[in-house]
Amino acid sequence: MARILAIDYGTKRTGLAVTDELQIIASGLTTVDTPKLLLFLKDYCEKENVATIVVGEPKQMNNEASESEVHIQAFLKKLSETIPHIPVERVDERFTSKIAFQSMITGGLKKKQRANKALIDEISATIILQTYLDGKK
């Protein structure tokens, strides 16, 4: 089987998570500066067997798209041009940053470590990926 890659897209930096090859466990991969994201993804997908890319879909409480969806749509267009052979799916990402932050507290991370926004983005991507995996069961 192939891995599933998840993206928590941000205008400054983007969190990434990936499954194992059996698509059982979601793990944080890294955080990438968003201007370098497409190059990173292209390189990663050439080295690893990726079956699907899952991108977080930010929504407001009333279920309408959030303001950042405009940026994500532009990214998705470039992604489909850069890596056209890998399908992209979307997952509701409401509350993932709050859940990520809470998991850092629960995990015992110190206040300075919890201020690391890159780590929050990576954990958020992992939550997006786990949500996707749970939905497939």
Model description:
- By secondary structure, this protein is of the alpha/beta class.
- It has one domain (3-136): 2-Layer Sandwich (Nucleotidyltransferase, domain 5), CATH 3.30.420.140.
- Helices cover 44% and strands 25% of the residues.
- The chain contains 5 helices and 5 strands.
- It has a 5-stranded mixed β-sheet with strand order 3-2-1-4-5, sandwiched between helices.
- The two termini are 16 Å apart.
- The model has no long low-confidence stretch (mean pLDDT 87).
Structural class: alpha/beta
CATH class: Alpha Beta
Radius of gyration: 14 Å
Number of strands: 5
Mean pLDDT across the residues is 87
Helix proportion range: 40-55%
Enzyme class: hydrolase
InterPro entries: RNaseH-like_sf (IPR012337), YqgF (IPR005227), YqgF/RNaseH-like_dom (IPR006641), YqgF/RNaseH-like_dom_sf (IPR037027)
Main location: cytoplasm
Family: Belongs to the YqgF HJR family.
